[in-house]
Amino acid sequence: MSRIRSVRARVWTWRGPTVPPQPKFCANAADLLREQGDAMQPYRFHQWLTCEVESDDGVIGIGNAALAPHLVKAAIDREYAPLVMGADPFDYACLWEKMYRRTHAWGRKGVGMVAMSAVDIAVWDLIGKLAGKPVFKLLGGRTKDKIPVYYSKLYAGGVDAMQREAEQAMQGGYRAFKSRFGFGPRDGAPGMRENLIRVEALREVLGYENDLMMECYMGWNLDYTKRMLPRLAKYELRWLEEPVIADDILSCAELNRLGVVPIAGGEHEFSLLGFRQLLELKAVSVVQYDTNRVGGITAAQKINALAEAHQVPVVPHAGQAHNYHLSMANANCPMNEYFPMFDVEVGNELFYYIFEGDPRAEAGCLQLDETKAGLGIEISDRHLQFFDISE
Q1: Is the pTM of this model over 0.90?
Q2: Whole-number Cα distances in Å, 329 to 107, 314, 325
Q3: I need a labelling partner for 174 at 20 to 30 A (CA). Which of 35, 78, 84, 294 fits?
Q4: What tens digit of pLDDT does each residue of 125-160 get?
């Protein structure tokens, strides 16, 4: 019987070239502060955490997290690693409960749950490797031939540039697309018009046979969204994502009840019970958990079952292998978000620079390799010159 011998958390800080984002490329929760400069800076991910859980027979499972990596590393090193040392990794449910309940006074949301997620993802990768099976086979197996993905970029910028990018993405075979609203309440009526100009421009290129989703990243509020929704109705958006701050569940429920545009969210929710609230209040029509925030694969599977019972589809936030395995194994996950390979900008791109083996989209879909055990990824050494790595 294999036992967990060590847990190693490292923080990877990108020092390589970056692409400066366009001003107003995405609304966000800090916009209402009226600070000068780059309000999106706190929401960039130019650091990443890897978590390696090693068994006593030398097999290593790999997990990861993108939020507050230095804080997450401290939580893993001081609190979570000791709780799993010496355990059988196949007792993942017991390990999860142990991590959750022993740290419940401070760890049930935010940094604590992110740290748990990194460890849990690594445990699942480890048991997949020990079993010689891909993780999705351990979660229930294949529910679809391929996973449809949506092109997730189209940051708000110049209209011509956005249309060119959309056209190129269509030529790459994508049939679903997500863009970002760059303007919010502080920009008043002129900002509303700028938002609508860009949605209309995208529909000119994409037509109405392709899905278009729009992201607010918590940068709007209830009043502003209620004023925008009637103006957006004619564009037939598949969903409007995170219009208000994550804690404002009642406003999401009110907006969703209007039935104008389906509301999507959950990227910034951290617990199974939090998703129960979202679903029972009918606050979202699409669940978008992030596996490396909600407690890892163990917790994500419970959220999948909860959402299915409410007949609400799950489309996990971000791409990345851990999300793909969950989507492959769940019929209630119709597609995945996908960040195209790109120079480092917001930071989601770092996944491609740290890991090898993450599936790449072809013609708007991606495939998981049944011959690769675990999550099918390994830590890469190809870009080490661009990282500072903290042990």
Answers
A1: yes
A2: 28, 12, 6
A3: 294
A4: 999 999 999 999 999 999 999 999 999 999 999 999
